[in-house]
Amino acid sequence: MSTHLTERRRPFGRALCAMVTPFDAAGGPDLGAAAKLAATLVTEGCDGLVLNGTTGESPTTSDAEKAALIRAVREAVGPGPALVAGVGTADTRHTVELARQAEDAGADGLLVIPPYYSRPPQAAVEAHFLKVADATGLPVMLYDIPGRTATRIEPETMIRLAAHPRIVAVKDCAYDLLGSTKVLARTSLAYYSGCEELNLPLYALGGSGYISTVANVVPGPLRAVLDAFDRGDTAEAARLNALNLPLAELMMASGLPGTVTAKALLGMPVREPLQPAGREAVDGLRAAYEELVQSYT
User: Fold this and answer.
1) How far apart (Å, rounded) are the C-alpha atoms in residues 233 and 228?
2) Which residues of 129-138 are buried (b: 16+ CB within 10 A; e: fewer)?
3) What local confidence, expressed as pLDDT, does residue 297 receive?
4) Of residues 66, 171, 191, 289, which has the active-site annotation?
5) Nearest to residue 143, comparing CAs of 173, 115, 118, 108?
6) Average pLDDT over residues 29-43
7) Please, are residues 250 and 257 in contact by the beta-carbon 8 Å criterion?
């Protein structure tokens, strides 16, 4: 069995933000605010941005809104930062349409989840991903998040899919470090943590970086953990990681969606069915945010 664990594959960089989609007071996309946020995130340390994911409220944005967001962000950040477009739906045909639309709009890659709710078996999941990968010339990142889709991309399925030349990466939210390590050891897939508490552990196992909702508000502190690890200062990486966890826990494990908590800190509205965070939650988030920022100054 060949091993790939000593190789860092970074097709989209290391530090990526799962960017929120700003809306205006009337409830429509605020492309100006999106462009400004994207430029700020890149300036503050993000190598790339994931647009139209769950954090970007993709279930409630139209296909036209998704394309407009990609175009606006591409114009704002230029050709350098990687733009990965979420195109996952429960319908293979619709996913293929969104993939082609994202390519035309200027995306650099596609983030694709297993079809949700219908709970297809692994052979159908595999066929779905292959059809999407064959639909464009863009590299594909598989999104393994069974807690939302109710369908796991099993490690053996990942290993088979890795043979496709355009399936290059995984966003890992399966909470299975054993399975992830197995795939890392047997393929060249680039693994990105999708759960902030696993950013450092997965990176230490040979992962490529992270895709973070929390990075919408603190991109620098999250990147600093990987910077310290890459310098060989694992003790400092662990210390910085511990500093980041209180805010990450409040944002991602407090009972509110990460979109809601990120937008609470950014002062942005959400689209129904999501509802804004209450005053008590906002106060707690702001206190944790300010404490983290002060620890880095």
Assistant:
1) 5
2) bbebbebbeb
3) 82
4) 171
5) 173
6) 98
7) no
Does residue 263 carry a catalytic annotation? no
pLDDT band for position 7 (cuts 50, 70, 90): low
The confidence score (pLDDT) of residue 191 equals: 98
Distances (CA, A) of 55 to 49, 114, 160, 167: 11, 17, 29, 23
Question: Which tokens in the block code for residue 141?
Answer: 């990142």
What distance lies between CA 159 and its chain's CA centroid? 21
Whether the model clears a pTM of 0.70, i.e. scores above it, the answer is: yes
The answer on pLDDT for 5 being more than 70 is no
CA dihedral 64, 65, 71, 77 (to 10 degrees): -170
The tokens 């069915």 sit on which residue? 273
Dump pLDDT digits (tens) for 53-107: 999 999 999 999 999 999 999 999 999 999 999 999 999 999 999 999 999 999 9
CA distance linking residue 133 with residue 164, whole number of Å: 8
CA pair distance 54, 179, nearest whole angstrom: 24
- Rounded mean pLDDT, 189-201: 98
Query: Which of the residues 117, 131, 143, 263 is marked catalytic?
Result: 143
- Residue bearing tokens 């895709």: 211
Of 137, 130, 192, 181, the closest CA to residue 155 belongs to 181
Q: Cα separation of 251 and 256, whole Å?
A: 7
Q: Tokens representing 194?
A: 């999708």
Task: Quote the tokens at residue 237.
Answer: 């990486």
Q: What is d(CA 127, CA 256) in angstroms, rounded to the nearest whole number?
A: 34
Q: What is the mean pLDDT of the chain?
A: 96
Query: Which secondary-structure segment (H or E) carries 296?
Result: none
Rg of the chain over Cα atoms, rounded to whole angstroms, equals 18
Pairing of strands 140-144, 48-51: unpaired
| Catalytic residue status for 143 | yes
